[in-house]
Amino acid sequence: MNKDKVLSIRNLSISFQTSAGEVNAIRGVNLDLYQGETLAIVGESGSGKSVTVKAIMGILSGNGKVKSGTIDFTSRKSGEEIKEELLSFSKKEMRRRINGRRIAMVFQDPMTSLNPTMPIGSQIMEGMRYHYKTSKKEAYEKAVKLLDLVGITEPEKRMKSYPHQLSGGMRQRVVIAIALSCDPEILICDEPTTALDVTIQAKILELIKDIQKKTGISVIYITHDLGVVAKVADYVAVMYAGKVVEKGLSEEIFYDPRHPYTWGLLSAMPDLDTNDEVLYTIPGSPFNLLNKTEGDAFAERNRFALNIDYRLEPPMFEVTETHYAATWLLHENAPAVSMPEALKERIKRMGEEVHSLGGE
Ligand SMILES: Nc1ncnc2c1ncn2[C@@H]1O[C@H](COP(=O)(O)OP(=O)(O)OP(=O)(O)O)[C@@H](O)[C@H]1O
What we know:
By secondary structure, the protein is α/β, with parallel strands linked by helices. The protein has helices at residues 49-57, 91-98, 110-113, 120-132, 136-149, 155-158, 168-180, 198-215, 226-232, 250-255, 260-268, 341-356, and strands spanning 5-18, 21-34, 38-42, 64-75, 82-85, 103-106, 186-190, 218-223, 235-240, 243-249, 317-318, 324-325.
């Protein structure tokens, strides 16, 4: 693929010291984000999505330790390419140079990132004043423009509003305006819509897409919701027990998934047609990361597990130049196993729906 990489994570491993022992939260993650594209990171709770993005932002909690890996960030904002390795920065340097300024994050619950005692206008202006020493007048004008960009009507009037005077959807828009205030190159969205109702969720997703078109920003979504992924992602990484177990272009993950865990996630998703029919839930509970892995961490929950899965962790097998999955089922000597028939039917239906909507 001949595209510009903005972020490149290699062999990232992170653990946390806890009273119960060492939690191996991230185990050798490799991921890339390309300029102007959207990467969605999906997986059940505890799979390592948040820890991965916290490492990018330099906000890991105190008991976290990066055991290996690099995170290369290539900035093109100044017109020339500047490559920096984010893990080499101290927390202070990250706050001063990267966090909020080059890479910004939108959290799930807007109330936790908004200050209830400050008008929203001042909150949007704050980052520009801190990072760029922008004059008050200029920061004010830009804040008004940003409110307009995120679809808030009468932006000048709204500058003086306090968070409690706005609806949930409006607050999320304000949080997005704050995130965009320093013209970041990467926007990270942590489940930006789960606290909102379905129609407003869809509007926020559209808004981010629209902003992406206008600004060329690169976006990372972390979410449980494959419905969200289908709407927004160019590229999808599926995480399980601290590893990326499958990654590929969005259509490769939706129409030609290869990992039984991805089959499980797709089957567990409410049907796009009926909105409530769930084919299947993945049995068992997520792997306990306090334990040492022997073999594939997913083996216990995998009804397609082979003997080798209990002994050896599968490497990433290449499906296409853009699609990889870590399952022994892709080994040339593996028995032929294909996805469950019900899921095949569902995928076929999804494809037909997209065609009938005039999509790809
Ligand atoms: N500060 C911490 N101390 C100990 N363990 C932690 C800490 N932060 C995260 N973990 C562990 O790391 C693992 C990955 O957590 P993470 O929050 O990244 O999961 P997630 O996929 O984002 O889940 P969710 O969707 O619920 O946010 C979990 O087992 C979690 O318990």
